[in-house]
Amino acid sequence: MKTLSFRLDSGLPADVRESLRKNLYWTDRAVRGVEVSDEDPATVTITCPEGTDEERLTAHVLADVATMTAELGQFPSRTVYESPGEPAAGRPAPLPPDRVLGELTARGWVSEELAGSFVYTGLMADLYYGLEHTFAETARQLGAREIHLPALLGTGTLLRSGYLADNAHAGNYVFHLHEDRELRSRFAAALPPDATEVDLGGLDTSADRPEAVLSPAACQPVFPALAGRRLTGPVRLTGYTRCYRYESGATHGLGRAREFGVREIVCAGSEAEVAAFRDELLAVCRTLLERFGLRGKVVTASDPFFIDTSARYRAFQLSFELKHEVQLDLGQGPPVAAASVNRHGDHFAQAWDIGLAGGGTAHSCCMGFGIDRWCLGVFSQFGCEVEQWPLSLRKVVAG
Amino acid sequence: MKTLSFRLDSGLPADVRESLRKNLYWTDRAVRGVEVSDEDPATVTITCPEGTDEERLTAHVLADVATMTAELGQFPSRTVYESPGEPAAGRPAPLPPDRVLGELTARGWVSEELAGSFVYTGLMADLYYGLEHTFAETARQLGAREIHLPALLGTGTLLRSGYLADNAHAGNYVFHLHEDRELRSRFAAALPPDATEVDLGGLDTSADRPEAVLSPAACQPVFPALAGRRLTGPVRLTGYTRCYRYESGATHGLGRAREFGVREIVCAGSEAEVAAFRDELLAVCRTLLERFGLRGKVVTASDPFFIDTSARYRAFQLSFELKHEVQLDLGQGPPVAAASVNRHGDHFAQAWDIGLAGGGTAHSCCMGFGIDRWCLGVFSQFGCEVEQWPLSLRKVVAG
Q: A–B: how many Cβ contacts below 8 A?
């Protein structure tokens, strides 16, 4: 392995550094590691195999950096609320995320099934489901009705919503073997008894035109289910589902998993109804941080799109404050985004022909709780001994 | 389209007919429809496109029929318990599954996202989560601790357990695009604005060696999480997860979906501990049928394996009564298998080196509740008006 380093312009906001850390893996398969230093100006260091064409890789990385950093200085992220957390007296500094994962693994509470996919038991499972229950209860108090969301979505659904055009690289595509008696035998015959992977090369499959993609965001299947409706009042729905994003080399621990659990709240209605509901969702963010005594912030944010239109889209989101995130403090290093509140305007309602009974197109907004990341924040800030947690969190795990 | 018909031997058990209905789609891509009549002897009718090579298809279908029906008569399925259901007075005959789906769709409670993947709202969502809650409570009463199970499993996990060698055709394989700046642009450029499917042909992806398969059975990821342990007593775990099977043309309605929800209970321990727990699980089957007043049976059953070893494996399962199913009556037509109880012997413990502290290999068993199918059974037997349901079920949806 060798490394390539580049000095960036000064004044790069923290969220842009984080976006570079995550997205530069997508520049080229030769990128095996990405580091972005915290000094100003920052240095990007790329790890790649010895034989890599340096000139070509450098050109590609610089082009992607330029796209991702364009127009960024103009619209910085804004903090709208800050929670100091439980009184600091006697409270240790938050455990870094890798230490949390190490502790939970050593106790047998977390085991990795696959890079980015985990089994939880013990206190980790109790906290995960306790928080999910709390978020579901919060949603019901906001008047949301339960909706059951699948994870297997039609490719057409994600094309129609515009998701795949911008995020094809993050897709977890699903395919199957084609039906054929001889193919079945050939597959079984070719499988060594101690195989650890399958070789489907040369078999007839649906991979070229995969019929399904795993849900990348919990609200995606909600709108097709409302297609063609004319709403007589605001529709408020809430569901739990697993979401899936392929994050390449950025896949890491509980903070950036390939499979993660989401409790989602969605509202569709008139522009005014949706705006009022969005304000209720922002109030929920503040209330939950306070209730659990977690140190964190609510900030305006942008989605980490990074293909050609991304910088412009980010500026658009930030300038109109379309997206907010709950960020939990993890001590040194960046915080983790544990929930987001998003205004969609009439984007989804246009795509799925969802209108208002009185005329006009509906608007929508949503909130997603990333449950695994809330668990990470709790273990980082309060440690692994449940007796040392705030009472509000001890109640959550006690059911 | 044209049809080919074959008369089968007489005396074919009902579960074998059902297995043929489901599995003959796997013989050849030309098979577009499979019907197996209920008379004795039964007739199989295959629908296929006009241009199909009849001789070749006939040979393939007959070969698969022979494999699936070999040795079958010897070990018929045995009914171990039968629940008459609520008193029949004034109770209408069960609604057929297609009528149930039509009714639920008309009320807006079920909408199809993709063939075999559904969104639920209204009474359907309330029943689904109410039953899941009931089954989870039942598991806790049996002493099971919560485990959180992912759906994205490593291909290696399903090879090591032996699942893929027998069931590669049912796999939902997951892949991603390889990291490449130019590939991203090429994909986006090739996407027509009104695309309804993606064409990934010619792009560099991981499809030939897919790294993940969607969980086909909820217990699969439990055993790797216990790998290497030496148990000092029985381990009882319970988790909720979504499972995925590609069922080709047999995919149909709520009874045979591609994605479905499972509440799972797993026990690992000594042979005697596992045998005792399995008996508790069988008692649970009876109790739940009675509690909800559902008409159904508990029967010995076999997995619908159908490649070369399948008939022998089925005979093995039936003769040793390794598998039981809860079958709910759906009126005319076959019942739906809504739960299964399975003895694994030391199969999984051998594969994952799970031992007993006192020496020897552990044994295991599991029970899975197919929640969507319980919902189908309830709507079929009691209709769509919650006021007409038995009190025990009204309590389930009331939370």
A: 290
